[in-house]
Write a structure and sequence with these properties.
184 residues, alpha+beta, three-stranded antiparallel beta sheet, 7 helices, 11 strands, 21% strand
Length: 184
């Protein structure tokens, strides 16, 4: 399956690089660690990553990155804590590309929704801004486009559990239908 096009990052690099939220985790087995599709894994391995960095997910099509210890936390092995930069930024997975947006189930697990993670300082500060609201429409349309819906339905581990820190902004109807059609 062909890799979807890159999404423009809504959070300015200057803001992102000065933040201490992304790519850092409290638990080594955090469900928030990035998920990679098979094609995304192939891409980063071709770029020099070790295949041992990934653990297979229950969908059998995607894998989660194994976090590594760093000080009192855990970090993505592609994160450089000295510079706060992603070492695979141009080829980072969709799961990372959409942040501070989250693809998840609603609280009662009856729908797949798009939300904004309010732990992200930019998401919290800019949530009401016209530009941010416009980007919500853009990313929802992107995630509901045919090729992307098919990719997510195949790699359904990309859909995370409900998170209280995430404000739901859209129900993703096409994705809900695609998963029902797949029997998931």
């Amino acid at each position: 399956m062909q890799r979807p096009l890159k999404l423009q990052q809504i959070v300015p690099s200057k803001v992102c690089l000065s933040c201490d939220v992304c790519c850092r985790f409290l638990d080594q087995d955090s469900f928030l660690a990035p998920i990679f599709t098979d094609s995304e894994i192939e891409t980063v391995i071709a770029d020099g990553a070790n295949s041992d960095l990934f653990r297979q997910m229950t969908d059998g099509k995607s894998a989660q990155i194994k976090l590594k210890p760093h000080k009192e936390m855990y970090i993505c092995p592609f994160f450089d804590p000295e510079t706060s930069e992603c070492t695979i930024y141009p080829i980072r997975p969709l799961d990372c590309q959409i942040y501070p947006f989250a693809l998840m189930y609603n609280e009662d697990r009856t729908q797949i929704v798009l939300g904004v993670d309010m732990i992200c300082p930019f998401g919290e500060a800019e949530f009401q801004a016209e530009t941010f609201q416009s980007y919500i429409n853009h990313i929802a349309s992107y995630l509901e486009s045919d090729g992307v819906v098919e990719m997510i339905a195949t790699n359904w581990s990309l859909i995370g559990p409900y998170q209280e820190t995430v404000v739901i902004v859209r129900v993703l109807e096409k994705l809900n239908r695609a998963l029902i059609d797949c029997g998931i």
